[in-house]
Amino acid sequence: MTDLIKQTARQLSDLLRAGDVSAHEVAVAHLDRIAAVDERVHAFLHVDREYTLARADQVDAKRASGAAMGVLAGVPLALKDVLAMKGQPTTCGSRMLEHWRPPYNATVVERLHAADVVILGKTNMDEFAMGSSTEFSAYGPTHNPWDLDRIPGGSGGGSAASLAAFEAPLAIGTDTGGSIRQPAAVTGTVGVKPTYGAVSRYGLVALASSLDQAGPCARTVEDTALLHMAIAGYDPKDSTSINQPVADMVAAAQRRDLRGMRIGLVKELSGQGFQAGVRQRFEEAVALYTSLGADVVEVSCPSFDYALAAYYLILPSEASSNLAKFDGMRYGLRSGDDGEHSVEQVMGLTRAAGFGPEVIRRIMIGTYALSSGYYDAYYGSAQKVRTLIQRDFNAAFTTCDVLISPTAPTTAFKIGEKLDDPLAMYLNDIATIPVNLAGNCGMSLPIGLAPEDGLPVGLQIIAPINGDDRLYQAGGALEAALHAQWGHHILEEAPAL
Questions:
Q1: CA angle 170, 157, 218 (to 5 degrees)
Q2: Is the dihedral of CA 217, 219, 222, 227 positive or negative?
Q3: Looking at the whole model, is its pTM more than 0.85?
Q4: Does residue 248 come out as left (phi exceeding 0), alpha (psi in the -120 to 50 range) or beta?
């Protein structure tokens, strides 16, 4: 059983299809791992063992019947607690939704069920996906399996930590400004933010509707591609969904020839403010790309210098609008409903009790930015910067197939280290935010350990809109070359829990 938790999703799929192991046995192995280590990691907010085993038994029965099965049938998965799952708690890491059990499934969940994936539980996250460290969960922080005193990134730290702790081989995250890629970088895992609209947002509790995107997380590039293909595709329930065929990302991940590929090194995303060890590993990865036959050139995207400021006006503005419904009247928690308080007082008491400090901070910023007399100066100006960033990407992609940068400026920092400094916290996403503002796709994959602290470093690959398969080609080839150098997967160097 211990061996099963160390297998990749592809390896588990092969074992399941060959009849060497059952979905029930695979689920038990991972549920037992969660029971053994998650008290220390706190990757999960909710695990329903009975439900998970029942789903696994259904998969086994379906396979025994001779029915056609998808490649991921019987493979376990950890689901970020921002996606609605019928009858299961969906809290978004907030007291506001502490007791909500949705009456419907998100489209991503429906597609996971259709692929016969076995969902293990719901993972911890920064409240309503607002944060870069998973310290802003109302239910306590998640710990990085590499060093339990450090953060696992955010907002999807629970999903990334579940992979690094071998509690699940696959996970789903969401990425509004880096919440898949930054946790992947600091935990030594792989995460992809798909093209905006490539994966349905129906049933994803909205933070910033023009930025949010669900995506796949795993321990290898190929596993991430397998999951990506399972959840991608047009959904009429999502008005922003892209109606076009899904590219074969698994085939792209298996290619090894990068000759003729043009890779752009983004000047503005690898300079000052980046940890020395992060820069060192990144430069080594650049050299490895060159040795693989890729043509690496430096490109400049000058508007990226304004991305952080623009993002922290656009996101809070959209969050202020999206979270207005959680007012004690229509949805979620209600406080002060004792007949002695006015409607306005109930709303105030509810929001004070239901929302944490980071959510309140961003709602206030967004409400101010949208207010009369300030809209054009703040929100309107931020949208103009967004257009400039999109133009910078378009110009870069006229000469390059993909762009690269470090995913995060530093390795995982200590829990509590940046809680009292919002700007320092926001700077963790400086390299990932431009992708969301433009709607492009991006991947983070591990490229080694920083020599200063022995913690994982991630490389970010960015591709054009609808160029998601390019991520997997560039990522798969680099991963294969790195594994050949190391002789093992990077997570084998992580301290055992």
A1: 20
A2: negative
A3: yes
A4: beta
Measured distance CA(399)–CA(397) in Å, rounded: 5
Residues 22 and 57 sit within 8 Å (Cβ to Cβ): no
129-166 b/e with 16+ CB inside 10 Å = b? bbbbbbbbbbbebbbbbbbbebbbbbbbbbbbbbbbbb
Cα 347 → chain centroid: 32
CA distance 222 to 201: 23
- In the predicted model, residues of the chain with pLDDT beneath 70 are 1-2, 336, 338-339
Active site residues: 80, 155, 179
Token pair of 312, please?
Answer: 């922290």
Quick one: tokens of 73?
């049938």
| Backbone φ and ψ of 22, nearest 5° | -100, 160
Residue 253 CA to its chain's centroid (Å): 19
Instruction: Note the pLDDT tens digit of each residue in 2-28.
Output: 599 999 999 999 999 999 999 999 999
DSSP-derived secondary structure letter, 489: -
Residues 6+ apart with CB under 8 A from 81: 45, 46, 89, 90, 91, 92, 93, 122, 123, 124, 125, 158
- 2-254+476-493 CATH: 3.90.1300.10
Residue 81 in tokens? 């607690």
Burial of 454 (0-12, 13-18, 19+ CB in 10 A): middle
Residue the block writes with tokens 């009369």: 372
DSSP 176-192: SSSTTHHHHHHHT-EEE
- Side-chain half-sphere exposure of 405, counting CA atoms within 13 A: 29
Q: How far apart are CA 430 and CA 433, in angstroms?
A: 6
The pair of structure tokens assigned to 468 is 């998601």
